[in-house]
Amino acid sequence: MESEEAARIIDLYQRKASDWIRSRARTKLIEKPWLDRFCALLPPAAALLDLGCGSAEPMAAYLIGLGHPVAGVDSSPTMIDACRKRFPKQEWIVADMRKLALRRTFSGVLAWDSFFHLCHDDQRRMFPVFAAHAAPNAALMFTTGPAHGETIGHFAGESLYHASLDPAEYRSLLDRNGFRVISHVVEDPDCGGHTIWLAQRI
């Protein structure tokens, strides 16, 4: 069952979108080594799906700069407006990732610092969504917590919900949905303590 904190995530990011955009603009692209690993699994100019794209800065911006067309999805209209202003030639979609059904596939699917805001059951239900949008050999990369549980962080003076399944369950969900794990690093010290999964569609 979804908690109150989890249910407030979409509203929080819409109300605090400007704060998030300003905060993210002040940070460096510490994710670059992982984005490069992700891109190493892709053909040139491969189409990518970014779930929870935020304002597209800096991650989608980096991928676009490498020549990858990006379709970005975010639940916040303010975030998507910022994407459209910055990168008008890309595709930007206001949508809840849990209900996404674009009826097409991509060579790469990214859910960085977004998927982990979903409650446990919603995370489980996302793996068929990943698979439905992943072309053969597609790369999939997402961030989670290090172990099963729920954590309440804070952003702009408000509670911010995070959840994680057990790593063994993530491996099982990936396997059942046609992905093999390429790399899994827990609390990577070179990437701000992120726990990262990189997988590839079989």
From TrEMBL:
Q: Which GO molecular-function terms appear in the entry?
A: methyltransferase activity
What the entry lists under Pfam families is as follows: Methyltransf_25
Q: Which UniProt keywords apply?
A: Methyltransferase, Transferase
Is Nucleotide-binding among this UniProt entry's keywords? no
Transmembrane regions: none
- Looking at the record, the residues that make up the Methyltransferase domain are 49-136
Instruction: Please name the GO terms of the biological process aspect recorded for this protein, alphabetically.
Output: methylation
Protein name as annotated: Class I SAM-dependent methyltransferase
Origin organism is Bradyrhizobium archetypum
